[in-house]
Amino acid sequence: MIKIFKRKSDKKEYYVSSAPKYKTTLGDVIFNILNYTFFIVFTIACIFPFYYLLINTISDNDLVRKGAITFIPKGIHFKNYISLKSVGDLMQSFKVTVARTVIGTGLMVGASGLVGFLVTKQEMWGRSFWYRFIIITMYFNAGLVPWYLNMAMLGLTDNFLGYIIPGIVAPYNIILVKTYIESIPAELEESAYIDGASYFKVFLKIIWPLSKPILATIAIFGAVGNWNSFQDSLIIMQNDASLYTLQHRLYMYLNQTTNIGQVMKSANTKLSASTQAALLNAKTIKYTISMVTVIPILLVYPFMQRYFEKGIMLGAVKG
Fold first, then answer.
1. What is the pLDDT of residues 202-236, one digit of tens each?
2. What single DSSP character describes residue 242?
3. Which CATH number fits domain 88-314: 3.90.400.10, 3.30.110.70, 1.10.3720.10, 3.40.47.10?
């Protein structure tokens, strides 16, 4: 029993019964130990690849070539990051990737928000047809060759717009936005319509501000997808190296390292000094560019995480 207070007038003491304490059993202790152990190991397994990349980019290059860097960096320096400025067309690839991510994500979020709002309106002409027409594209894919031929026919090969236009309409994101908007009280829209507001004004002044959690969620999806995508760069930008993305450049340097290793293995002889330098250069550049391509997403995601968690849960309440 816990004593709450005592009145001076009637000299009575008032009590409230305390909740019974939960008795921890041996099974609970074992479960907690296994649970914490699993998640600690899982967290380390997720973090270690990034840590390994980092320590290999800031350690002595000769030790990196010999594979002597595993857990602790040695001979710390930052010359690899500084030397990236001298890597041909790398800065151009960085600009292309940033522009693609910003423009592509912005247009995708705007289109998903507007289309998701429109398909919630019962009075929209052919609403069911257009909504199903968008959703059906999630289940049917013509394949890589027809996709390339279609891009070539539309003039989107060796064209920056080839990165942007195909990703503007994202069916899955439209579903999330539509479901989220349907959870917003309809009275807010109705009061605006009574005051004479148009559909577009209601969308900008009411729906868009209230939909920030789900819009931030799909923005993360879009930004990560645009930043990490390289297949379209590899296929439709074959004749214009100035439009290569960072990931495409990383792929090229990865192949460089692999090819040099195959030459070394087939020759079965010691590498010359020039070949060793090429191998060292390709390997350290591969590690460094890998780290550079990962850092922006790692920096942005923590600030968007609270929106991501809230948006994805609220957007999944109804189907």
1. 888 888 988 888 888 888 888 888 988 888 898 99
2. G
3. 1.10.3720.10
